[in-house]
């Protein structure tokens, strides 16, 4: 049921304030007077000790689910102190990469049925690792075969392009980081700030959704382009990859997410006055580095669209020439949840304006059950 919306993708983008609320329901605790703030993940409680003792945490997924894990990786490393590595399921299988008994392997999948992820799960089980599932489908193969897990609870996602599952997956993995991390005095302020940030997230997403009209205007401007680059780094490297994936899969426009730190190692050669480039430059520890990336792209006459924190337009707009997308600020590790929303809207409007099928992009299936 699409309700008042024309397409499922549109509905699922706009229902993110609600899907995020459902994902967090009953899991965040802002205790009474003497109890501090904490996270309760029922499906993990018997395994937390083992996870904390593991030598390495490996995230495995495909497509958008991989990108969600990439967005959560920095906060998991920060709070757990355990090395976190990333694997695209098919690539791990191609290499038959080493997995050990001392590893915790986290499988991220909206459908819970993706063939590559499922096969990687069989492989990790054979190698004796502790396997954790993060899926949006109760009773799915990945939910059943893993030792323990967390349901995403984002509600059924129908549009082939994943939107609300992505933001809920990031929130689930941020809660996972809080659950694994030790409640030490030194990390207490940071943990509480993240928990407060999670509570506020649905209202901030509501706020960023107000950019709908602006994103439609931007889509109109980009309608006939051949290509779009998206630059990000740090927490928002994932935003660049995921924004580009949305544009290419539904709007059928070539788009590439680029790690801004790699700019000088090749991508800079593409920059000219015609190619549109989105730069994600919201406030976090990487902000000044992103400012210098913007300056360098500007010096090559790049056609820039800069995403920045509200009030920062003047600090990112070199020569007053770039288009600006201003988004509300949240705790740095949660910023990817906010920043992807304008790019989801852009991909949606680009698709409709270009006359393509939004909910069933050419050649794609919602659940990839073959290899
Ligand atoms: C992109 C998209 C795909 C899926 C990928 C994994 O919008 O939907 O990239 O994310 O096929 O699917 P799941 O999460 O079901 O394992």
From TrEMBL:
Gene Ontology process terms (BP): fructose 6-phosphate metabolic process; protein N-linked glycosylation; UDP-N-acetylglucosamine metabolic process
Domain SIS: start-end pairs: 47-186, 218-361
Catalytic activity, EC: 2.6.1.16
Protein's name in the database: glutamine--fructose-6-phosphate transaminase (isomerizing)
Reaction(s) catalysed (UniProt annotation): D-fructose 6-phosphate + L-glutamine = D-glucosamine 6-phosphate + L-glutamate
Positions spanned in the full protein: 313 to 683 of 683
Assigned keywords, A-Z: Aminotransferase, Glutamine amidotransferase, Repeat, Transferase
GO molecular function, one term: glutamine-fructose-6-phosphate transaminase (isomerizing) activity
Keyword Transferase carried by entry: yes
Pathway assigned to this chain's UniProt record: Nucleotide-sugar biosynthesis; UDP-N-acetyl-alpha-D-glucosamine biosynthesis; alpha-D-glucosamine 6-phosphate from D-fructose 6-phosphate: step 1/1
Enzyme type, top EC level: transferase
